[in-house]
Amino acid sequence: MEAKPDLKTQVMIAARENGISAVLFRNAIARKLGLNITDSECLTLLSIKGTSTPTELARYTGLTTGSTTAMLDRLEKAGFIRRRPNPKDRRGVLIEITEKWQEAAGPVVAGVQAAHAELISSYSDEELETIVDFLTRFTQNVVEHTRLIEESLKAGAAEAARHDESKVE
Questions:
Q1: Along the 169 residues of the chain, how does pLDDT read in single tens digits?
Q2: Distances from the Cα of 55 to the Cαs of 6, 35, 50, 69, 109, in angstroms?
């Protein structure tokens, strides 16, 4: 008979499974709404933040600036986003979701939102404080290690470029 994993291992497994299920859920939403996953991720970020700059969306989606512009053009043509002038940058724009997006996405996510609200209400305030602390710190760990990986990629690309230049000389 297989031994039950200890509690710390169970937490790590549950966190990993949560991440996987979130990706699968977002993919299903994208398919349901006829979007590719990158466009859907962009709309998800905008739904959470309210507004964003194209540069921030490029960073979030991993797209180049040119690809981000093409994505925003698609989403604007579909009526899911609008561009408006950035009051802090005369040359910049802010991107925001439209009511059309909210009307399209709302019914698709309403069930899981209700289920989550019911689950959350089953915990005491003290338990919720612990959950918030854990999720916040867990997310900070992921953000920090993502940053470190991105930095190592940039350093690796710079080193490869220097290596290529030295071959030419």
A1: 566 679 999 999 999 999 999 999 999 999 999 999 999 999 999 999 999 999 999 988 889 999 999 999 999 999 999 999 999 988 899 999 999 999 999 999 999 999 999 999 999 999 999 999 999 999 999 999 999 998 998 887 777 767 666 666 5
A2: 43, 21, 15, 10, 27
Alpha carbon 35 to its chain centroid, in Å, reads 15
How far from 32 is each of 12, 55, 79, 118, CA to CA, in Å?
30, 27, 17, 24
CA-to-CA dists, residue 86 to 22, 61, 92, angstroms: 32, 21, 5
Dihedral over Cα of 6, 10, 11, 16: its sign: positive
Which two tokens mark 29?
């939403």
**How far is residue 52 from each of residues 27, 81, 133, measured CA to CA in Å?**
22, 11, 26
Q: Among all chains, which residue has been given the structure tokens 């470029």?
A: 161
